[in-house]
Amino acid sequence: VQLQASGGGLVQAGGSLRLSCAASGRAFSNYFRRTVMGWFRQAPGKEREFVGYIKWSGGATYYDDSVKGRFTITKDNAKSTMYLQMNSLKPEDAAVYYCAANLVGSMSTDPHGYNYWGQGTQVTVSS
User: 53-65: per-residue pLDDT in tens?
Assistant: First the structure.
């Protein structure tokens, strides 16, 4: 599975940004019913932290409390792409955002629960 994240940039506090994560590969096509895709973020000097995930089959989502009500994860099955809509951004949301996937249906909030990772995209929020 290959994951390609994009959409990061510079935004003012209170603004919005949408990240994309395009998935490809035969394994993704074969195991999409058990695929869970997640977003994580990592700020300088901090550990990678969970943002949210979406179950590819059915679309169930789950978010960390820090982003609940502000961030929304959606997917486009036809494009094999996951999105992270980020609204009401705060300076503390600034980080490198990573998308990740596992093909075993693990609805995990731990980075170790995912074995496929995108390259990361930088989100900067100015105050």
Answer: 999 999 999 999 9
